[in-house]
Design a protein that fits this description.
Layout: E1 2-7, E2 11-17, H1 24-43, H2 46-55, E3 62-67, E4 70-78, H3 89-96, H4 98-109, E5 119-127, H5 136-150, E6 155-161, H6 165-173, E7 177-183, H7 188-191, E8 195-202, H8 203-206
Parallel strand pairs: 5-6
Antiparallel strand pairs: 1-2, 2-3, 3-4, 4-5, 6-8, 7-8
Length: 214
């Protein structure tokens, strides 16, 4: 199942479920480009981080945007105890070593989010720089909403950091409402952000067939 759209100047963009076979590295690169600043202290250096993410992706926990067969965007989500980015504690220790790996595990634990019953947790959107501002993010959000509706979820939840106002604005246009903000000024120097806002969108009210704001 997927969605098709023709964005201004972007050609025909198709949204499909799952990371296409062979595109794991590209997916990891897009994800790192979007979230590397946030995840860097836990997974740097970048080349190693991208390789780790590519090796441990759960391909069925993403919706992807393709242009001429090339991956240009994706949105991950957590459902049924599995998220787009995988990798067990032992995998982190094997990749980074036990001494440095333990420190990284503590940092990664800061980003863990568990969905409440009947809730799908969205794991952010990554869009290739050349495709930003062309409606790709909106298409990805609506496909995630379709997944949530089919899975019987009543709500989609996501977190957005204070240094990403563009993402927060997009989520607001797509029906998400801020429900709380957690201020973490002590982490700004380490992680690069000092507040995280949780936003939610009711699936029944804004799922497939609901508002569509470009």
């Amino acid at each position: 199942m997927g969605r098709d759209a023709t964005g201004a100047g972007a050609g025909a963009v198709r949204v499909r479920r799952g990371v296409p076979a062979g595109a794991e590295r590209r997916a990891a690169e897009l994800y790192w480009d979007a979230f590397g600043r946030k995840l860097g202290p836990a997974l740097n250096p970048p080349d190693k981080a991208v390789s780790f993410l590519a090796a441990h992706l759960n391909a069925d926990r993403a919706v992807c945007a393709l242009l001429d067969g090339q991956l240009v965007g994706l949105a991950g989500y957590q459902l049924g105890g599995r998220a787009l980015t995988g990798g067990s504690a032992s995998a982190v220790l094997r990749a980074y070593g036990h001494l440095r790996g333990l420190h990284r595990l503590l940092l990664l634990a800061l980003f863990e989010r568990r969905p409440a019953p009947d809730q799908l947790v969205m794991d952010g959107i990554a869009v290739a720089p050349a495709m930003r501002g062309r409606g790709v993010g909106s298409l990805l959000i609506e496909e995630v909403a379709a997944v949530a509706a089919e899975e019987g979820c009543r709500e989609i939840r996501l977190d957005v950091i204070d240094t990403n106002p563009r993402a927060r604005a997009l989520y607001g246009r797509r029906g998400f409402t801020a429900v709380r903000t957690e201020h973490t000024p002590c982490l700004r120097g380490l992680l690069g952000f000092g507040a995280v806002t949780t936003m939610c969108r009711p699936v029944a009210a804004n799922g497939p067939g609901g508002p569509r704001t470009p």
